[in-house]
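We now fix the convention by which a protein and its fold are recorded. These numbers are not coordinates but entries in a learned vocabulary of local backbone shapes. A record is reproduced here so that you can trace the correspondence yourselves:
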Amino acid sequence: MNEQPALESRRGARTRRRVEAALLALLAERGYEGTTVRALVTRADVGRSTFYEHYRDKDAVLGSALAAFASTLGAATNGHRPFGFLEPLLAHVIAHRALAARLRTSTAGNVVLARFRALVRTRMAAELVDHFPNAAAERVALASEHATSGLLALFDAEAGRRGPLDGTRLATAWRELTLPGLHAWLGARPPR
């Protein structure tokens, strides 16, 4: 039995995790503009050729990291709790507060934040379709934008306060503030 492909697959996954973790750390320290492939390979402790086996450039690392995060959020969704992705999403955002603050200081950083926002909007739209399957697509699109904006605004308001943030409390507040409006707009029974 040849275990080489499985070993290479595990090594590749480990390398990608290290490079993507290095990206998050470097973005918080240097911003998007200041993060280079050289810095990524140094921080991740991988060779340049190894890096290019997995990614074409730093934007590809960002895309891969966002895709992995989207997959994590999708896995957190379940039929038992409406919008189950909120708690892991908010835990991630809270853990990377400095990163978000750093990214807001530049145009390229704002582009990264826009990609993150699009990821959240996409997850939100998928949840709305699951919970309100009879709603019109154009209404779901508007509701997704509104619900995403409300969630991120709620986080920003809380982040401006002193003291620790509680993702569970924020998720509960979002649900209580938002679900009645979603029900009224989408014309379906709200999730419980």
